[in-house]
Design a protein that fits this description.
alpha/beta; Rossmann fold; three-stranded parallel β-sheet; 11 helices; binds NADP nicotinamide-adenine-dinucleotide phosphate
Length: about 325
């Protein structure tokens, strides 16, 4: 029987720590600000937008809302980002995806100043992750106390933030004491938002990583070798019981909304849970941790800014 890796309790712990730290900054007259940019009215983007607004308010992060119509021009979007980049009250910017199809999403995300790229999806942030320049966030010996001990040097050394969903996956695995070093991790999906950065993070953690995608031949042959399977495709029922070895750890990142409104992942949960040692539920697994990571990255950005502004740095 498998252990359920629920994200709710980890997310709550992270949010509680963020709230305490935001309060501490507020007490010294410093506000933590998060901008949200929504273009158009895609239902899943709107849902994430509203959840992020609510979660930010709960931890005391001040939100700055930027909503543009679906027919906004690329110039309007870029000008809004420039305005946010210049605004000293704003520590992080979340652009909601998907953008309208006529907009080049990479052009948009690359315009976010790296210091405010708290979703870590810009080319510089991804490059720094690949170059192991931002992976030190993955190696805080006691991540449970990381925001309490905030030496200025560590904060000012942050050059890029880790993408929230894959970083949340790593934090969830660590929370449940799942060993990564030397394990064979199979990541299914190679998107810039999830699969690719997740594979780089697992590699940084000394796992042996195989990345699969649509063109992968005989997916089951590869997943059956995996100690850890992380599926991020959005294909309902892709991972079946026959594709999983006894005792494997299963992380289901996929989200599929059924006609009934029910949300399911990529994994055939009932069959697979009989063989897995650990498995995430959908919903309630990776999802809650993603927003918590976004809030934590926003806080880190504010603390870094504060550390850089401090006269201590100049002495
Ligand atoms: N829980 C969360 O917080 C959270 C956050 C973000 C995303 N998600 C969910 O995670 C899923 C993936 O998101 P994404 O942004 O990475 O999506 P995406 O950009 O559409 O990428 C999907 C990836 O899955 C691969 N894929 C599709 N069908 C496949 C198949 N039959 N076999 C093997 N690989 C296949 C694609 O391969 P190719 O590259 O070859 O096309 C692609 O790399 C979605 O369901 C999304 O809703 C969840």
């Amino acid at each position: 029987m498998s252990i359920l890796m629920e994200g709710i309790s980890l997310a709550k712990e992270i949010k509680d720590r963020v709230r305490t730290e935001v309060q501490r900054l507020n007490d010294s007259g410093i506000e933590v600000g998060l901008a949200l940019l929504l273009v158009g009215d895609n239902p899943s983007s709107r849902q994430y937008y509203l959840s992020t607004l609510k979660a930010s308010k709960r931890v005391g992060i001040r939100t700055h809302e930027f909503r543009l119509s679906a027919d906004a021009s690329i110039n309007e979007i870029l000008n809004t980002i420039h305005q946010i980049n210049r605004d000293e009250r704003i520590n992080g910017l979340l652009v909601l995806f998907p953008l309208p199809p006529r907009i080049n999403a990479r052009r948009v995300v690359n315009e976010i100043s790296p210091e405010k790229d708290i979703d870590g999806l810009g080319a510089l942030s991804i490059g720094r992750l690949s170059a192991d320049e931002s992976t030190f966030q993955l190696f805080q010996s006691d991540s449970k106390n990381e925001t309490e001990s905030n030496p200025c040097i560590r904060l000012s050394g942050i050059t890029g933030f880790l993408p929230c969903t894959p970083y949340g996956v790593v934090r969830l695995l660590e929370y449940y004491d799942v060993p990564l070093r030397g394990k064979h991790a199979v990541v299914i999906g190679k998107s810039l938002a999830v699969g690719k950065p997740l594979s780089m993070m697992l590699l940084a953690k000394d796992a042996t990583v195989t990345v699969c995608h649509k063109e992968t031949a005989d997916l089951g042959r590869i997943t059956r070798q995996a100690d850890i399977i992380c599926s991020a495709t959005g294909v309902r029922g892709l991972i079946t019981r026959e594709m999983v070895k006894e005792g494997a750890v299963i992380v289901d990142i996929g989200i599929n909304v059924l006609k009934s409104g029910k949300i399911v992942g990529d994994v055939e949960f009932d069959g697979v849970k009989e063989k897995a040692s650990f498995i995430t539920p959908v919903p309630g697994g990776v999802g809650p941790v993603t927003i918590a990571m976004l809030l934590e990255n926003t806080l880190m950005s504010a603390m870094r800014n504060e550390a850089l502004n401090s006269p201590f740095q100049l002495s």
